[in-house]
From TrEMBL:
Bias kind Low complexity: ranges: 1-15, 60-80
SUPFAM superfamilies, per the entry: Ypt/Rab-GAP domain of gyp1p
Superkingdom of origin: Eukaryota
Ranges annotated as spanning the membrane: none
Coiled coil: 365-406, 433-501, 565-712
The entry's keywords: Coiled coil, Phosphoprotein
Name of the featured protein: Ecotropic viral integration site 5 like
Chain intervals for the UniProt region annotation (Disordered): 1-40, 54-80
Species of provenance: Sparus aurata
């Protein structure tokens, strides 16, 4: 891969970027096997230069106090600078090779690449390496950037307001109309249009500012979009900031587990984790630590994610634990603001080393994430229940207030609720029954229409079908996940089957070569066997000749010379025979050696073939492992999307419940309002009917009632006349005397009816109250001059009078009193009608 020209750096965030690469990482044995000879040589040079630098720095420190050795100090410093230049050259070569061979390094030399990134990325390579780490080199959103800048965003005012507070001391962002502020505004505006749910958050401007220090605005925009999508930053910057709460929860657990004393001190001082750690996660230490140190942390963040934020945060707290325990809340705040940020200015490697000494368990963090999600869901349900109860409580209070108003209104009606008012209300209700029924029907129809409208709205938006659709989508997503898992398992089975088949299949090229070698070996074996047989035939022939010669030696009876010659010939023949046998044995040994050599060659070929197959299988295994990683990554992505869809569905269900509770509350309020309006309407109708009734109809009604009462009294009087004649005379005389207007009102009746029982007293009291009511119905000024005005005394007199009544007299007394009262009322009513006419 070649380095694109557009990825050249814009500005350097630190003045000593070469310090980040002064120490070359030690390659592990597994990684050294994958390195080429040139790379191994380059690493050896880097280590040698490091050793020279360490020796020179030690000599400089030891000789800085001596004037005699000033010359040697200068020599060592010059050698250190030359070594540094060579080291920078070697670092450039190494990182250039890494960038050009990026895919191979990520696949085969991942551990070595991780160690190099932890040591620090050179400044001039940060732009392209960050893009490669974030996989942001070729993104479709890059082509939309120019079009996004032409659009308007609702967050433009907020972005303009916060730009001046982003790196105010940095040269690139100084000034209101500086280039840095302009490109920062463009990137933040473009992203607020791409992701309208997140929009703009102040902490994200610092991350974009750091990217703009390294690369042009289009590349910075692509990297920022990738960070938001793939590095959990989008969840951090959402309006709800749910991911920030999760990070704080996980960090508190790590603090409690690894630094329990400091955690107890923080709790005792009410120094919450969010007071100092929120900015760490939102800005990735860019607002807390100096820019060179924060840039080193950002290098590792691009490769390892939020894990480095947890590690660095705990490392900082471990380093300052002794000082923080001795401070109060205000002192700890000052310590975090002024002391801690400058502790690692000169040695960021020290902070990185401490960070990787912190214990961090990814599996435990996943469990904490699940626990936090469960807690938040319970809190959401409790909030919904609390809101519903508050709504019901508010409605009940309104109902109580309405009932109190109605009670007070009924309690202060003039004249109280008496029989006359009931009779009058019944009469008015009978007269206006048709109108009231029509109005009631109209109101009922309106209420039914309103209820139907509310039901339609509920059915359109918040029905159970909507929730069932969400559940169906959830089940479908789970089925898709199960299908993907099944497909993955099938693919793995197929891969294993193919591997078995490939191991069983022979290599055609190797088979042909082996066949040719076998043919040659067979030919050589045949030649050897043929020569061996010839040798055996020669030996056999010599044996036969020797035997013939030895067998005929006894027939020679010649001179001693011939005998000596024959002995020599025999010895010569024996020697030749032994020689032939030795040659035969030698050839047999050579044949065995040749066979062993052939077998050795075959075995070596088989070993070579096995090595080739093993290397091929290793490559295949590596490829399958990569495929497995890719499939696992896809599976994790599907799980993450599944979890997001689950969370979204739960949020939608919760929102539906909240809206349903609000709608129910609104319905209850509308019903309450309708009831109040109906009550007010009825009260207004009744009051208007009471105040505006016709006087003539009213008088005629009273006359009818008087006539009916007279008839009833006459009937009762005739029925009991025989039994109560004497009592009637006495009672009539007493009433005549009592009804006269005098100062001693009610005395005769008290003496006459002193023996009445409780029921008689009550009946007589009712008659007196009826008389009082009839007096109140007369026109103003008539009641005082009526004949019956004098006998109605004070309330205490009536109570004393009623207490002395007895049962035998009550019926006749009631009849007589009623007759007298109505006769007097009739005369008063006649005079009142005459006056009206």
């Amino acid at each position: 891969m070649s380095i694109p020209s557009s990825s050249s750096p814009v500005l350097s965030p630190d003045s000593s970027s070469h310090d980040a690469v002064l120490s070359a990482p030690a390659a592990s044995p597994a990684d050294s096997e994958n390195l080429s000879p040139d790379e191994l040589e380059l690493l050896a040079k880097l280590e040698e230069q490091n050793r020279l630098l360490e020796a020179d720095s030690k000599s400089m420190r030891s000789m800085s106090g001596s004037r005699r050795n000033s010359g040697s100090s200068l020599v060592s410093s010059s050698s250190a600078s030359s070594n540094l230049s060579h080291l920078e050259e070697d670092t450039w070569i190494l990182w250039g090779r890494i960038v050009n061979e990026w895919e191979e390094w990520r696949r085969k030399k991942d551990k070595l690449l991780k160690e190099l990134i932890r040591k620090g990325i050179p400044h001039h390579f940060r732009a392209i390496v960050w893009q490669l780490l974030g996989n942001a080199t070729d993104m479709p959103v890059k082509n939309q950037y120019s079009e996004l800048l032409k659009m308007s965003s609702p967050c433009e005012k907020l972005i303009r307001r916060d730009i001046a507070r982003t790196y105010p001391e940095h040269e690139f962002f100084k000034g209101q109309d500086s280039l840095g502020q302009e490109v920062l505004f463009n990137v933040m505006k473009a992203y607020s249009l791409v992701d309208r749910e997140v929009g703009y958050c102040q902490g994200s401007a610092f991350i974009v500012g750091l990217l703009l220090m390294q690369m042009p605005e289009e590349e910075a925009f692509c990297v920022f979009v990738r960070l938001m999508q793939e590095y959990r930053l989008r969840e951090l910057f959402k309006p709800s900031m749910a991911e920030l709460g999760l990070c704080i929860y996980q960090f508190e657990y790590l603090l409690q587990e690894q630094l329990p004393e400091l955690n107890v001190h923080f709790r005792s001082q009410s120094f919450h984790t969010s007071m100092y750690a929120s900015s760490w996660f939102l800005t990735l230490f860019l607002t807390f630590l100096p820019l060179p140190v924060a840039t080193r942390i950002f290098d590792i963040f691009m490769y390892e994610g939020l894990e480095i934020i947890f590690r660095v945060g705990l490392a900082i707290l471990q380093y300052n634990q002794t000082d923080l325990i001795q401070l109060d809340m205000e002192g700890m705040s000052q310590h975090f603001q002024k002391v801690i940020p400058h502790q690692f200015d000169s040695c960021p490697d020290k902070l990185i080393l401490r960070a990787y000494q912190v214990k961090y368990n990814p599996k435990r963090m996943k469990k904490l994430e699940k626990e936090y999600t469960t807690i938040k869901n319970k809190e959401m349900e409790e909030q919904i229940e609390i809101k519903r109860l508050r709504t019901e409580n508010r409605l009940l209070k309104q109902r109580i207030e309405t009932l109190e108003k109605v009670r007070y209104g009924l309690g202060f009606q003039p004249g109280q609720v008496t029989r006359a008012q009931e009779a009058e209300e019944n009469y008015v209700i009978k007269r206006e029954l048709a109108v009231v029924r029509q109005q009631c029907n109209t109101a009922s129809e309106s209420l039914e229409k309103a209820q139907d409208t509310i039901r339609e709205l509920q059915q359109q938006k918040y029905t159970e079908q909507f929730v069932s659709n969400l559940q169906t989508q959830l089940e479908q997503s789970r089925l898709r996940e199960a299908e993907l898992l099944g497909a993955l398992k099938e693919m793995q089975d197929k891969v294993l089957d193919l591997e078995k088949r490939s191991s069983c299949l022979p290599d055609e090229n190797n088979v042909v070569a082996l066949q040719e070698e076998v043919k040659q070996m067979k030919l050589r074996e045949l030649e050897t066997l043929r020569s061996f047989r010839e040798m055996q035939e020669t030996v056999t022939e010599l044996n036969q000749r020797w035997q013939v010669t030895g067998g005929g030696g006894g027939h020679w009876k010649e001179s001693p010379k011939k005998n000596a010659m024959n002995e020599l010939q025999d010895k010569l023949m024996t020697v030749r025979l032994r020689e032939a046998q030795a040659q035969a044995e030698l050839r047999e040994v050579k044949l065995k050696a040749l066979q062993l050599e052939s077998q050795n060659q075959i075995n070596s070929k088989l070993i070579g073939r096995n090595d080739q197959e093993r290397s091929a299988l290793q490559d295949r295994l590596q490829m399958l492992a990569n495929q497995n990683k890719a499939l696992q990554a896809q599976l994790n992505e599907m799980k993450r999307k599944q979890a997001e869809s689950d969370c979204k569905s739960k949020e939608e269900v919760m929102a539906v419940r909240l809206r349903e509770a609000d709608s129910m509350a609104a319905m209850a309020e509308l019903r309450q309002r309708i009831a109040e309006l109906e009550i007010q309407k009825e009260e207004g109708l009744i009051q208007g009917q009471l105040n505006h009734s016709d006087s003539r109809q009213y008088i005629s009604q009273l006359r009818d009632q008087i006539t009916e009462l007279k008839n009833e009294v006459g009937h009762t009087h005739r029925h009991r006349h025989t039994r109560t004649h004497t009592l009637s005379d006495i009672t009539a005389q007493s009433l005549e005397w009592t009804l006269k207007p005098c100062n001693n009102q009610g005395c005769g009746i008290v003496e006459l009816f002193s023996s009445l029982t409780a029921s008689g007293k009550k009946l007589f009291f009712i008659l007196v109250v009826l008389h009082q009511m009839l007096r109140s119905l007369l026109p103003e000024g008539r009641g005082q001059n009526s004949p019956c005005a004098g006998w109605v005394g004070s309330r205490m007199m009536l109570e004393d009078f009623c207490a002395k009544l007895t049962e035998p007299h009550v019926i006749h007394v009631a009849a007589v009193v009623t007759t007298r009262l109505f006769s007097q009322f009739k005369s008063s009513a006649t005079s009142a009608v005459r006056d009206l006419h």
